[in-house]
Amino acid sequence: MPKRGAFIVVEGLDRSGKTTQTSRLYDRLSQSGTPVKLYKFPDRTTATGKMIDSYLRSQSELDDRAIHLLFSANRWEAACSMIKELETGTTIICDRYAFSGIAFSAAKALPPPSSSSLSSPDTNSTNPSKSISTSTLSYEWCRAPDTGLPAPDLVIFLDVSEAVAQARGGYGQERYEKADMQRRVRAVFQRIAIEFPPVDVGRRAQGELEGGLRWINIDAGQDMDKVGADIWNCVEALVGGVGTPLGRLWS
Ligand code: Z5A
């Protein structure tokens, strides 16, 4: 049976270098002759994407649940094409995906974090799951609309401290680009990551990364080339194709 394409998602906080690294990875794969497609969510060009864009620029107001469902719909719009591409051997690289959807929406229901406990990349510094699950915009509620979407083989989380992110130009003008919101988002990403088996950056033998979603944290505070090299270490084994069937998120 021919192998399908690999599905690789890059997640991270603001200014962690997602766009830089997904485009570098895309270039590297296409130059080497690997069939590859780059997605970025939200896709602001579609009908739902235009509503999302207007909300993010604070040009319109929407209920927190309505915007959450629009972000999810924006992914579902692309899901059929993504599945076809993966099944016909194209590798997909994706700049943000459903994990951002949960992180940014569930973060709204978190109590204000203390900067000392949440600004470092130390994943053991908080236990956000309790407060998330008792809130009205609960973690489970936020996860539900994306259940059944194509599941990535690998999620690369670009981990960057608040100080480093700020040094890269600070936060922009959009709705979520504020230090307090970014700290809450980090806490929810930490909650999401514990659902998946951890993998070391150096672990890259084919087969070890197949058969279910893997989550890898990469220190995105390093220089761009080193971050790119760490990412390549993780994805190299997958780019020849994946022998296991495409999974579905949380199903
Ligand atoms: N959102 C949501 O609420 N729900 C959802 O379901 C989804 C998203 C999918 C979309 O923003 C917003 O929507 C986002 C989450 C929310 N809100 N926030 N915050 P977006 O996708 O349009 O923008 P972004 O993802 O936030 O991009 P970004 O933070 O602006 O940047 P980035 O892609 O992570 O980084 P970059 O553009 O590659 O790099 C930023 C700068 O740092 C740039 O000058 C680079 O040259 C520099 N850089 C990058 N890497 C390095 C290194 N290693 N060293 C030094 N400098 C570097």
Order of helices and strands: EHEHHEHHHHEHHEH
What Rg is obtained from the alpha carbons, in whole angstroms?
17 Å
Kindly report the name of the CATH homologous superfamily.
P-loop containing nucleotide triphosphate hydrolases
The tally of domains stands at: 1
Domain Thymidylate kinase-like: 10-109
Biased composition (Low complexity): 113-131
Organism: Hydnum rufescens UP504
Region (Disordered): 113-132
Q: In a nutshell, what does this entry contain?
A:
The protein has 251 residues and is an alpha/beta fold.
Question: Could you please describe the fold and organization of this structure?
Answer:
- Its EC number is 2.7.4.9.
- Residues 113-132 are annotated as: Disordered.
- Residues 113-131 have a biased composition (Low complexity).
- The longest helix has 24 residues, at 64-87.
- Helices cover 42% and strands 11% of the residues.
- It has helices at 18-31, 47-56, 64-87, 98-107, 115-118, 129-133, 139-143, 162-167, 179-193, 224-235; strands at residues 7-12, 36-40, 91-95, 154-159, 214-219.
- It is globular and about 50 Å long.
- It has one domain (7-238): P-loop containing nucleotide triphosphate hydrolases (Rossmann fold, 3-Layer(aba) Sandwich), CATH 3.40.50.
- The two termini are 24 Å apart.
- It is an alpha/beta fold and 251 residues long.
- The protein has a five-stranded parallel sheet with strand order 2-3-1-4-5, with helices on both faces.
- It is built from ten helices and five strands, in the order βαβααβααααβααβα.
- Ligand Z5A binds at residues 12, 14-20, 41-42, 56, 71, 96, 100-101, 104, 168-169, 176-177, 223-224, 227.
